[in-house]
Specification:
Layout lengths: L1 H30 L5 H45 L3 H6 L2 H20 L2 H21 L1 H48 L1 H6 L3 H53 L5 H42 L32 E8 L3 H22 L2 H11 L14 E8 L4 E5 L6 H8 L7 E6 L2 E2 L5 H6 L1 E4 L10 H5 L8 H10 L3 H5 L18 H15 L3 E5 L7 H15 L3 E5 L3 H4 L4 E6 L2 E6 L1 H7 L1 H8 L8
Parallel strand pairs: 3-8, 3-9, 6-7, 7-8
Antiparallel strand pairs: 1-2, 1-4, 4-5, 9-10
Length: 612
Amino acid sequence: MMGLIVAISIVGSAFSLAQPLLMGLLIQQVEQGAWQAWIVWALVAVVVGHALLSGLQHFLLQRTGERIVLDARRNLIRKLFHLPISEFDARRTGDLVSRVGSDTTLLRAVLTQGLIEAIGGVLTFIGAVIAMLWLDWVLFLVTFACVAVSLVVVIGLSSRVMAASAAAQEKVGELTAATERAISAMRTLRASGAVEREHDRVVEDAVGAYRRGLDIAAISAVMVPVSTLALQLSLVLVLGIGGVRVAAGDLTIAALISFIMFLFMMIAPLAQMFGAISAVASALGALGRIEEIASLPDETAADAAFAPRVALVGPANAGAAPEAPALEFDAVSFRYPERVVRAAQAKQDASGRFDRYVTATGRRARKAAEELLRIDDTAPVESPLVLDGVSFAVPRGAKVALVGPSGAGKSTTLALIERFYDPIAGAVRLGGVDLRSIDRRELRAQLGYVQQNSPTLAGTLGDNLRLGRPDASDDECAAVLREVNLGGVLDRSPLGLDAPVGEAGVRLSGGEQQRLAIARTLLAAPPVLLLDESTSALDGANEAMMRDAIDRVGEGRSMVMIAHRLSTVIDADEIVVLDRGRVVGRGPHAELVDASPLYRELAQHQLLAPRD
């Protein structure tokens, strides 16, 4: 396809260059009192042929440009889907979405307004220069002087366009992130009376994008007049000096007309190239943002130091130690990457600065706004240990509960089991095998993970239910929904499993979404269940029903649960008490009530503690 476009550009350039030559020949014959019809037909043919080729080239360019955008989006989406979880924790979601959307769109300019189109322009330009030099070298030197000055200025400003474009795309990414954040929390904003404050915050991001856009406009405001002035000046000088040379007999009228036609043919490619320089510079700014993500290592990049197991058939068959516990933490220590901690602190810092901004007035408001825009996300931060030498085991078929105050490291423990992160010291083992030696896909196929706030994806009830088991039958899906008391949701729509749940599950209540997440895990029935306060949004009746359903499915399976209610953990085979990243107590409920002051305090308060 690219070769065809280049070939069309070459033929189109030849047709363009033939027009002034044929026109000059026709004028000469008219001056001599005789002309041949074939010249007229040839002129018509090259004009019509050039028009047809231009249309075909435009279509092929647009098609190829769209294909390049599609390929870029495919590659970027694939990269995003395989990035480490730490990248999502350290970046704003809207900014990543912006790179897939607006940044990739700018790549089209590299092709449709840039490289390929410039090839035909360069060929036409070179041909026109040769013809102009052949017709009259004096007029050519005049034209060359004007064009050279403008070309130097435009090329000099292109680097500033690229930098300004990159900054503008960064601001668009921030605006997208802020908008996505606000829309996803609109109910909370309205219920909290914070709509106007959040509105002002998003508008501030829009103003930032507007200012960066003005930077590009300011540079373009210099580039466009310079190039236009040079081209117009060259035309005026050619007409003036050319007229003088015709009057002096140094140049024929036919040659002057041909020269002017070649000048216009040179002007069009020049304008095209000037536009291409600006378009490509803008696209390169966006390309830098895309390459930043494309160059990031995949989640599996760190696995090269280990020998991944090709097959893993359940914890009972994993590794060479069948007597090993299903799960084991062996002196595990972990801290979040500095980038993740910095991002979290920057968001908190920005929130505090914004509160000062919206309450300030007059000169104080201006100062507060400037402070808001000076968030330093590169300052060194301290990343404390979240887990410090944690050791415990989950015997096969046992139920182990993790309890502790907020920030104790409970949810982080489950994140390490899922290999969202890897420990910085110690090891987490499944069936005696270090998790880092197991293929991630095989590992996660053995785990059923229910988060406290498990997201519900836009789509249907069945789509969400079958995420972990796409081959499940309708009868199996209906049965598990009724088992978690979602039969009413299934029956209230004639569409049944095909009923839409809305964006982010908006058509379901919080408790229904949590039960749907549990149903999804029960349907997959993996060997190991990880439950992160999975019944926190349920009332007493539904919680009891969930416990019974989980116990039925969990029979013979290993289970690790984070609990905030005493009723959830009291029948666990072992309870692990965490505090500030360390294990401060282990044992069944009856023993811990006597042996662990922290557990006794939590039990007295029904273990009610916010999530980590």
